[in-house]
Amino acid sequence: MTTPLWTQAAIAGLFDLPLLDLVARAHAVHVTHHPANRVQLSTLLSIKTGGCAEDCGYCSQSAHAESGLKADKLMDRDTVLAAARAAKAAGSHRFCMGAAWREPKDRDMPALVDMVAEVKALGLETCMTLGMLTDDQARRLSDAGLDYYNHNIDTSPENYGNVITTRTFQDRLDTLDRVRAAGMRVCCGGILGMGESRADRVSFLHALATMPVPPESVPLNALVPIRGTVLGDLLHDVPSARIDDIEFVRTVAVARIIMPASIVRLSAGRESMSDTMQALCFMAGANSIFTGDRLLTTGNAGGDRDAALFGKLGLLPMEGMAEPVESEAA
Ligand code: SAM
Ligand code: DTB
Ligand code: SF4
Q1: Is the pLDDT of residue 328 over 50?
Q2: In the prediction, which pLDDT does 286 show?
Q3: Distances in Å between the alpha carbon of 46 and those of 79, 97, 111?
Q4: Which pLDDT value is given to residue 237?
Q5: In this predicted model, what pLDDT tens digit does every residue of 199-225 receive, in sequence order?
Q6: Annotation says 56 is catalytic
């Protein structure tokens, strides 16, 4: 287990490279650590939508937002399993179940544990994102076979309070420690285009790369501007606040260089990216996407467009990253 020695100054130096040098370097790192032209496929399902107590300024599901989203109860297991089967049939490897909670309640745990076991039995990798966890909840999910837990730091420690006030950056790190201690793999990244500075992007990536063990999976989301959310409204009203495409590509490339073994996911925001922009992101080291027509509450690029894109770029799906799942259904 190696701890990267990246300093903020060294990371800032990478950002400052001429774009083509930066992307070439990222691509070289990519192909020495990952199969070339292969992209890992994950599918999202919102298993509990809306009504969240947290005040994340980007999120349609916050009770503090005025996005008009109706709060639902936890989805029943058969609906979840039908969606997981459909994801598998569409070629996805990992099924990520997201809940709009600050943290799960202990009374929800039996249903969650059951979902993990059943989705895994279909032969899919499992991922959940449920908010903060206690040690006991993390252990129960891990024992049920949860492969990954998604818990994003979202932005730099310095910018965190501008985006979320109902929890701290340290709260996120504490849950990530519990996830690790319980033996699960970590999916942790953030959102670009929330008005953060270059220095924030440097500090955000530094925080990820210098974790005791860097996340196995690093989702980089471009802010999806949702009306009724603080940050979404800002972006609608001031379109120039949108992150510049080249700066986004730079961030992907730097993530690839400083976290060479991690899967870097081109996550939310792909729907508004051109094929050319996505191609540049894959060149810069992104090697995972969300498949399907929906993310959690917003649209996604979707099957047909992605199939055409993969065809045009000569990309192929990557095989599952976790150990093969024995057929438990037999
Ligand atoms: N409630 C849990 C939590 O916050 O950890 C899980 C669900 S939450 C929706 C998962 C992640 O989705 C957030 O941390 C954020 O990075 C991303 N996300 C949410 N809304 C987004 C948006 N409008 N644009 C881009 N990413 C978004
Ligand atoms: C992550 O980093 N991105 C995904 C997943 N983790 C849970 C969520 C994206 C949500 C985009 C906005 C929405 O659909 O509500
Ligand atoms: Fe709740 Fe997660 Fe949305 Fe924040 S990002 S409001 S914690 S669902």
Answers
A1: no
A2: 98
A3: 11, 6, 15
A4: 87
A5: 999 999 999 999 999 999 999 999 999
A6: yes
Catalytic, 127? Answer yes
**Which of 61, 66, 298 to mutate to test ligand 3, by most ligand atoms within 8 A of the CB atom?**
61
For the whole model, what pTM was predicted? Answer: 0.94
pLDDT of residue 2: 52
- Residue 234 near residue 240 (C-beta atoms within 8 A): no
> For ligand 2, is residue 49 a contact (CB within 6 Å)?
no
Span from the CA of 12 to the centroid of ligand 3 (angstroms): 30
DSSP for 257-312, written as a single string:
HHSTTSEEEE-TTGGGS-HHHHHHHHHTT--EEE-SSBSSSSB---HHHHHHHHHH
Residue 4 pLDDT: 53
Alpha carbon 57 to its chain centroid, in Å, reads 17
Q: What range defines the domain where residue 307 resides?
A: 8-317
Average pLDDT estimate for 49-64: 95
Residue 98, ligand 2, Cβ within 6 A = yes
User: Per the domain annotation, does 3 fall within a domain?
Assistant: no
Domain assignment present for residue 235? The answer is: yes
Q: What CATH code is carried by the domain that includes residue 57?
A: 3.20.20.70
Given this model, what pLDDT does residue 189 score?
98
Instruction: Please give the structure tokens belonging to residue 154.
Output: 């979202």
Is 204 part of any domain? yes
Number of domains in the chain: 1
Any domain includes 325: no
Question: In this predicted model, what pLDDT tens digit does every residue of 158-172 receive, in sequence order?
Answer: 999 999 999 999 999
Closest ligand to the CA of 190? 1
Q: What pLDDT does residue 208 have?
A: 98
Q: What is the DSSP string of 67-93?
A: S-PPP-PPPPHHHHHHHHHHHHHTT-S
* Distances 241 to 116, 183, 197, 221, 232 between C-alpha atoms, Å: 39, 39, 11, 16, 11
297 lines ligand 2 (CB under 6 A): yes
Report the candidate in 141, 128, 40 with the shortest Cα–Cα distance to residue 84. 128
